[in-house]
Structures are given as C-alpha cells and as structure tokens.
C-alpha cells in the first residue's frame, strides 16, 4: 500500500468563509430558510445537496469539520457528534437491531464496555467479549446474527494493537462490519485504508488537543452517513447528539495542527518509554521492541507519525500508584486526571478510573493490574525533565532495578 499522508489531505481542502475569510464562517443558526417550498421537501428527503434544514440534521460548520475528517480518514463521508460515546453508540445502534450480536475486544474504554455489557441488554443485543489479538477467538465468536466486530486500533488501557487487515478479512468473509475506535492513534493508523468499514473517534482527545470541549466523530461510506442522518430512521438524527457549530469551528482549526502535535506526542512518548525501560520501570509502549505487537504496529502505521503518545506503567498496587501519581503531580510531571491527548501529560490509575466499569474479575482475566497507570504523554519541549522527575520518584519508592 502506498504511503498515506492524512495531514496533506486536510491541508489541500479549500474551505473559505462566507466573505472569503481564510477560516470557514461559523453558522449561528438552528434553522435555515428556503427560496422554494419544493427545496425544503427535497432536503427533508436528503436529496438536496448543499442545502441545510435544521442544525440537528446538518449545519455548514459541522459539514466543514466532517469533510476534513473524511479527508483525513480517506472515507467517503463523516458525521460529527457531541461526544465520543455518542459516536460509538449511534454507530452501533444504526448497525444493530433487537436480536443481533456484536463481537468486541474485552480490552476497551470503560464507557464503551459498560454500553456493550450492560446497556445493550435493553435491546436484547448480545455481545461476546474476546481477546482481540487472538484472531481465532474472533472467528469462533461470530454467530449467524453477528452484525459488527468492534475494536480499538490500540486498546484502552492495555495498548494491544488490533490487526485491522486480518480482522477486516474475517469481517468480510462473514459479511459483518468492522468498526474501529481510532481515538488513541489519529493520523498514526488509518483504519479505513486497512479495511475497516467505520471509524469512530472521541475528538475530545488528540484531535482537539486542548481538553476544552467534548466531541466525537463517525467516518464511513456516504450511504452509512446518509442512513445515520435520515430523518425517518437515522439514529444520529433521531437521538440528536448534535455538536455545537462554535465547537466544530474550534476543532477544525485545531485539526490543522494535529500532524505536528501527534509527531511531538510520539517523539516524547517513544523517548520516555525507552528511558524508563532502561532503568527497570515496568513500562508498556507499542514503540518498544518488547511490546507483543511492536512489529504489527510498525507495519500498520503511517511511519511519519510514530507510535503514539500513550504508554502505561505498572506500579502493581493501587496504593503505590496513587502515591506516585500524587508525587508526579507535585513534581510538575503533569496532572492526575482522566482523558488524554492534552498538551500536558495526564495520568490515571485505569482500574479505578477509566476502566472502573469493567468488573474486577474481568480486569484480572484481561491482565489489567490494580496498579496500572495510563500516561498520555504531553508536548513537553524537554521531555528529559519529565523523565528525571519520574526517575527520582521511582527511585525513592524502590522501583528501580539495582
């Protein structure tokens, strides 16, 4: 496959403001006027390209952002939502009906796990959780009523790398859809080019990069996005998780610096992971040769963007993790906070925070240590300062190899 440059795809878009502004205009309207009655009717039916009906359906600001995301992912179209969970839930509910079945990675974001494990019972949609790196278990889990294989490009928080091309082969052979959450690895991995049918994001994270809003995205075929937004039975249209146009405009501006930010996140995380590994800290990072799917990640990624900004350290116990995180915050390593993709480093103990929805016995089965701390490495200009602070704290806690 030829080298793909998602940043250049965005750069080449021509999106001007209403009066020739270099930034697209922000549309501060909930509803839109029509010159003719028949135009309104055709727009209701989805037949009137370029016309806007009501902001819950489409608005120009959201369309600009959706077009840029589709260009980045190399999909035909995209839809933006008011949160990452809205993107995930709307896409899955559009694909599945009562009595259907989903195969998913057991290692996934806690909110997604809760939706799949608990909420979908309301609709009698069955879900089978598997080790996504075991392709045979994925194949074996598929049933006649399976509609979706769901995974994350790099799973949260264990950082397993999904073999998207082989999962796509399994999906196509069984006539099901492959849906991939690419929140951890925008621009680094391009799931649609690797065979995924639908790509979802929490844009709250790396894509926006400032932790000042909550937003999501769904990227896929034109038909799928049209179905999502259909006024009669489109899940996104009828459930109404619309993104505010002002936020769309802000995210679109930030999207144009995503390639710079992802490269710096990756450089910092790569260097930090290697230094921590050298001193004996139990670090997990796809860019380390010791990572079980290191070569897979290397083969899947767009090479200019590195291995990503996410790593984890196993401090073994919750008590030890909490002590070290508090000390790291006091030493200005970053913030003890959930979320990721921020310009400052963020860290949290996954089992008691972003994966707390996963029952403790399931956490143990999937290998999630009580003391696993997920790091979203920031945009530090001198990452060696961060390393020295962590090293001193680990040394004081007796965690370094003798």
Range of strand content: 5-15%
Query: Roughly what percent helix?
Result: 25-40%
The CATH class of the largest domain, by name, is Alpha Beta
Apparent shape:
globular
Please give the number of β-strands: 12
**How many strands, what sense, and barrel or not for the largest sheet?**
7 strands, mixed
Rounded mean pLDDT is 94
Structural class: alpha/beta
- Kindly report the CATH topology of the largest domain: Aspartate Aminotransferase, domain 2
Strand order across the largest sheet: 1-7-6-5-4-2-3
What is the CATH-assigned architecture of the largest domain? 3-Layer(aba) Sandwich
User: Any idea what the radius of gyration is?
Assistant: 21 Å
What's the name of the CATH homologous superfamily of the largest domain? Type I PLP-dependent aspartate aminotransferase-like (Major domain)
Give the helices and strands as they follow along the chain: HHHEHEHEHEHEEEHHHHEHEHEEHEH
Number of H/I helices: 15
Span between termini: 46 Å
Low-confidence stretches: none
* Integer tally of domains: 2
């Amino acid at each position: 496959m030829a080298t793909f440059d998602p940043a250049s795809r965005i750069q080449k878009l021509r999106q001007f403001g209403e009066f020739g502004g270099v930034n697209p205009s922000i549309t501060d309207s909930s509803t839109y006027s029509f010159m003719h009655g028949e135009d309104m009717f055709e727009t209701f039916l989805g037949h009137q390209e370029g016309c806007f009906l009501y902001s819950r359906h489409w608005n120009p600001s959201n369309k600009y952002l959706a077009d840029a995301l589709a260009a980045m992912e190399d999909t035909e179209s995209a839809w933006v939502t008011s949160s990452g969970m809205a993107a995930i839930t709307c896409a899955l509910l559009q694909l599945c009906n009562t009595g259907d079945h989903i195969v998913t990675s057991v290692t996934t974001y806690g909110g997604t796990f809760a939706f799949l494990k608990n909420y979908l019972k309301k609709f009698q949609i069955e879900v089978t959780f598997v080790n996504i790196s075991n392709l045979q278990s994925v194949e074996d889990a598929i049933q006649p009523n399976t509609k979706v294989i769901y995974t994350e490009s790099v799973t949260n928080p264990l950082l397993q790398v999904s073999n998207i091309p082989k999962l796509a082969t399994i999906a196509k052979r069984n006539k099901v859809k492959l849906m991939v959450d690419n929140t951890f690895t925008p621009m680094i991995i391009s799931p649609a080019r690797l065979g995924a049918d639908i790509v979802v994001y929490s844009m709250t994270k790396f894509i926006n990069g400032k932790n000042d809003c909550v937003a999501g995205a769904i990227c896929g075929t034109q038909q799928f996005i049209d179905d999502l937004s259909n006024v009669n039975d489109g899940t996104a249209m009828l459930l109404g998780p619309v993104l505010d146009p002002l936020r769309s405009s802000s995210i679109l501006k930030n999207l144009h610096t995503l390639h710079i930010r992802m490269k710096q996140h990756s450089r910092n995380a790569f260097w930090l992971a290697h230094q921590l590994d050298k001193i004996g800290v139990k670090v997990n990072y796809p860019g380390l040769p010791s990572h079980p799917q290191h070569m897979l990640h290397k083969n899947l990624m767009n090479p200019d963007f590195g291995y990503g900004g996410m790593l984890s350290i196993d401090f073994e116990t919750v008590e030890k993790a909490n002590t070290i995180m508090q000390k790291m915050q006091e030493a200005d390593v970053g913030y003890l906070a959930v979320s990721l993709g921020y310009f400052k480093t963020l860290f949290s103990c996954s089992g008691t925070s972003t994966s707390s929805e996963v029952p403790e016995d399931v956490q143990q089965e999937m290998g999630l240590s009580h003391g696993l701390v997920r790091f979203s490495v920031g945009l530090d200009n001198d990452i060696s300062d961060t390393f020295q602070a962590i090293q001193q704290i680990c040394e004081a806690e007796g965690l370094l190899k003798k």
